[in-house]
Specification:
By secondary structure, the protein is mainly alpha-helical. The protein has helices spanning about 10-30, 30-35, 45-65, 80-100, 120-145, and strands at about 110-115, 115-120.
């Protein structure tokens, strides 16, 4: 049976980084105070969601690259919008760098991400993207509830 590639590795990281660009713009849209305090229906403030995204993507990729299984920690000492954006910007090129170290031949290999998600590596990578999209959607809802127009979801450059 021939294997068909739907998306190549370079296009996948470009797609993911496009989502990261959009999520960054969502963070930027939040007023400082509401970023850390506003929530709806018992959900976390968006700052806590961003800390989760920061504690999963790059550390998860590094775990795969280094073949190390370590638990994640969302309790990051980032207490201002400026700090969150700086950390986001610091992670962005490191994500691409780590991603490029994972050979496609490993994509079907199981990896127990954070000791909690034992799936093929490609599914772990797709989880990073899906989780970000899911949580960015929460940010969109928060912004709309605050009377702020979120960025267009299709503009990822």
């Amino acid at each position: 049976m021939n294997k068909v590639t739907v998306i190549d590795k370079k296009k996948l990281i470009t797609h993911w980084q496009g989502h990261r660009n959009l999520t960054r713009r969502v963070i930027e849209k939040f007023p400082e105070e509401e970023l850390f305090t506003f929530s709806i229906g018992g959900m976390r403030p968006f700052s806590e969601i961003v800390k989760e995204l920061l504690s999963i993507a790059l550390p998860g990729l590094l775990g795969i690259v280094e073949n190390k299984v370590e638990p994640y920690d969302h309790d990051l000492p980032l207490n201002s919008k400026k700090n969150l954006l700086e950390e986001w910007d610091r992670h962005t090129p490191l994500i691409t760098e780590a991603f490029e170290k994972i050979d496609e031949s490993r994509f079907d290999e199981h990896f127990n991400l954070f000791g909690a998600f034992d799936y093929p590596i490609i599914q772990n990578i797709l989880y990073f993207v899906d989780n970000e999209i899911h949580h960015r959607g929460q940010g969109f809802v928060y912004l709309r509830a605050l009377g702020i127009e979120p960025p267009a979801f299709w503009e990822r450059d």
